[in-house]
């Protein structure tokens, strides 16, 4: 009944396009592929035997990002019962939408990029899943639903919320691209999370995954995964802004948070319980996830000494040693690479 | 408390968590992929068989299905407290443990005929826990009943350990072959069944794996016994024959 109510409400509020995707008022563009690449890919996809084969042929470098089963491990932290209705904000190509639908009653996948949703629609057909609907809408413009969801997914999305305009990642990531922003990124992120909160029922749960602002690799000069600049995540915001303006012509808006700052934000929004998990080597392909309040029992290094060609690399060996030292011996969990938060409303 | 301890290791599609609640400790395994679902079902059957042999008086099931539908499976396995030896130490350093495992294997794998013995499929030092109650074999993801000749899993363990000992070396040391021979004698003395691996054991083990690849599917490459090349197989089988006489 609950599922039927949610579907009815969504269908009343949005129109479906020819690809069976519900369309909101304000779509946008955020993709690893350029718009013209995506146009070609969607054409290719329509005649391909499956979404998987289309991606392998055209963009094998993105295969793991889309299809790796490693990605779904974090969903177990939600301790799902199986009868939940869920909403996946920024679902993109469906890395979590598909596995979530296999575990629950219904999933609404929301993304601003129509191309990504057409690809995901094909994946859903390939998998013969009947319990997913897709909505193309700007996440900052999403409505408040009357029928609330049991589970909300915000996976690698919060840090992109303050961005505006079209983002073709290859042309954008670390590239000079002059832009002005007239708002505080944190306020944007909080406004979005408030909407997520209001769309959850009284016992609802949020799954939020994001990089840790103080990821140990940031101190070693590894570039910020969103702006492609060194030290920007760990420096004071004003300094990071200054560097970003100088280097890439736009302010630093992809704000990340520490464990405690993220917990405070979620608590301030109204979540009653917030359980944090340290995630290694990152939340996308986790090898080790441990409750933040625990002391990383059983930690083993998640950095491979060999690269994809099987060659031992000094930089990787160094990273492995530092990782073991920090987490296995010093238990410096606040420097973990990524955070997963499971926040419960009730 | 839920802690991810293994995620799709060795190319499988299973997520493994350690789960502790109200002082009860469990391992949780889950998958939403067809190969992973099949393997977890095998694990359930494996535990059922092993429990009937190893813990016949236990009243509670060691392995229980929590969720099971067409697209998703999740099981709970009772956590066994104990010690896991490092598999990378190899055959000589792990010899004492290897003898114990072989004895355990010979005790448990009794009561079958011809080539229809149960298959663990991944009997490795890494899948054995030792504690005051003895040996406990875990990770039954490749389990199959009526599948293998007597001794296959034990030989597989031996060649895994020999491979970790030899690493880049072409020939095994005499002392390594001695451990291998002592273990083989243990296996042979424990059963009157005909031994498929009597002559050319490494070659025969490899042949069995290759002709029965359905048990391992895309994870067949993970078996160390397959990593020996033709020259090494010849040398090792010859040394076994030579020093055995």
Explain briefly what this protein structure is:
The complex is a heterodimer of chains A (346) and B (245). Chain A is of the alpha/beta class and 346 residues long.
Explain how this protein is built.
The complex is a heterodimer of chains A (346) and B (245). Chain A is of the alpha/beta class and 346 residues long. Chain A has a domain at 2-158 and 178-212 and 254-296 and 340-344: Vaccinia Virus protein VP39 (Rossmann fold, 3-Layer(aba) Sandwich). Chain A has helices spanning 2-13, 35-47, 51-58, 63-67, 97-103, 114-127, 169-172, 185-198, 216-219, 237-248, 259-269, 314-329; strands at residues 15-16, 22-23, 30-31, 85-89, 106-111, 132-136, 149-155, 167-168, 200-211, 273-280, 288-291, 338-344. In chain A, strand 5, helix 6 (114-127) and strand 6 (132-136) form a beta-alpha-beta unit. In chain A, helix 2 (35-47) packs parallel to helix 6. The radius of gyration of chain A is 20 Å and the shape is globular. Chain B folds into 2 domains: 2-78, Phosphorylase Kinase, domain 1 (2-Layer Sandwich), CATH 3.30.200; 87-244, no CATH class. Chain B has 245 residues and is an alpha+beta fold. In chain B, helix 2 (95-108) packs parallel to helix 4 (174-189) and helix 4 packs across helix 6. Chain B is globular and about 55 Å long. In chain B, the strands form 3 sheets. Chain B has a 5-stranded antiparallel beta sheet, covered by helices on one side. Chain B contains 6 helices and 9 strands. Helices cover 38% and strands 21% of the residues of chain B. Chains A and B meet through helix 5 and strand 11 of A and strand 1, strand 2 and strand 3 of B.
């Amino acid at each position: 009944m609950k599922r039927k109510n949610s579907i009815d409400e969504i269908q009343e509020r949005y129109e479906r396009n020819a690809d069976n995707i519900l369309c909101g008022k304000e779509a946008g563009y955020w993709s690893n592929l350029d718009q013209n690449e995506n146009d070609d890919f969607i054409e290719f996809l329509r005649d391909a035997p499956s979404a998987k084969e289309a991606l392998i042929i055209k963009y094998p470098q993105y295969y793991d990002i889309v299809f790796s089963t490693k990605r779904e491990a974090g969903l177990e932290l939600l301790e799902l019962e199986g009868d939940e209705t869920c909403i996946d904000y920024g679902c993109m190509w469906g890395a979590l939408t598909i596995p979530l639908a296999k575990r629950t009653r219904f999933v609404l996948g929301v993304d601003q990029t129509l191309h990504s949703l057409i690809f995901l629609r094909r994946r859903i057909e390939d998998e013969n899943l009947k319990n997913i609907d897709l909505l193309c809408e700007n996440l900052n413009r999403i409505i408040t639903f009357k029928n609330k969801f049991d589970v909300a997914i915000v996976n690698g999305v919060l840090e992109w919320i303050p961005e505006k305009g079209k983002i073709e990642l290859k042309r954008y990531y670390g590239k000079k691209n002059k832009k002005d922003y007239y708002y505080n990124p944190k306020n944007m992120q909080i406004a979005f999370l408030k909407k997520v909160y209001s769309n959850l029922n009284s016992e609802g749960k949020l799954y939020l995954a994001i990089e840790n602002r103080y990821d140990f690799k940031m101190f070693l000069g590894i570039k910020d995964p969103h702006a492609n600049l060194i030290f920007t995540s760990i420096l004071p915001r004003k300094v990071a802004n200054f560097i970003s303006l100088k280097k890439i012509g736009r302010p630093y808006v992809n704000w990340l948070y520490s464990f405690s700052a993220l917990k405070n934000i979620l608590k301030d929004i109204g979540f009653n319980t917030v359980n944090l998990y340290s995630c290694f080597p990152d939340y996308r392909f986790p090898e080790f996830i441990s409750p933040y309040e625990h002391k990383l029992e059983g930690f083993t290094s998640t950095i491979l000494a060999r690269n994809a060609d099987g060659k031992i690399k000094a930089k990787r060996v160094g990273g492995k040693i530092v990782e073991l030292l920090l987490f296995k011996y010093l238990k410096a969990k606040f420097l973990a690479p990524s955070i997963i938060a499971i926040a419960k409303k009730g | 408390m839920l802690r991810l301890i293994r995620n799709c290791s060795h190319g499988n599609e299973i997520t493994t968590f350690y789960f502790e609640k109200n002082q009860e400790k469990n391992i949780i395994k889950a998958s939403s992929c067809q190969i992973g679902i099949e393997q977890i079902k095998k694990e359930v059957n494996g535990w059922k068989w092993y429990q009937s042999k190893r813990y016949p008086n236990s009243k509670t099931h060691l392995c229980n299905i929590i969720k099971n539908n067409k697209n998703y499976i999740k099981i709970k396995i009772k956590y066994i407290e104990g010690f896991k030896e490092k598999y990378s130490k190899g055959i000589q350093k792990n010899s004492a443990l290897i003898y114990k495992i072989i004895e355990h294997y010979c005790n448990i794998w009794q009561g079958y005929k011809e080539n229809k013995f149960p298959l663990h499929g991944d009997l490795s030092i890494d899948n054995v826990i030792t504690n005051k109650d003895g040996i406990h074999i875990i990770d039954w993801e490749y389990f199959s009943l009526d599948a293998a000749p007597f001794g296959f899993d034990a030989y597989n363990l031996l060649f895994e350990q020999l491979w970790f000992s030899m690493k880049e070396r072409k020939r095994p040391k005499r002392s390594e072959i001695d451990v291998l021979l002592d273990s083989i004698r243990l296996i042979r003395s424990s059963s009157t069944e005909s031994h498929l691996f009597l002559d050319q054991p490494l070659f025969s083990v490899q042949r069995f794996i290759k002709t029965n690849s359905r048990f391992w599917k895309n994870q067949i490459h993970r078996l160390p016994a397959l990593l020996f090349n033709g020259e090494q197989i010849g040398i090792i089988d010859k040394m076994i024959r030579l020093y055995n006489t």
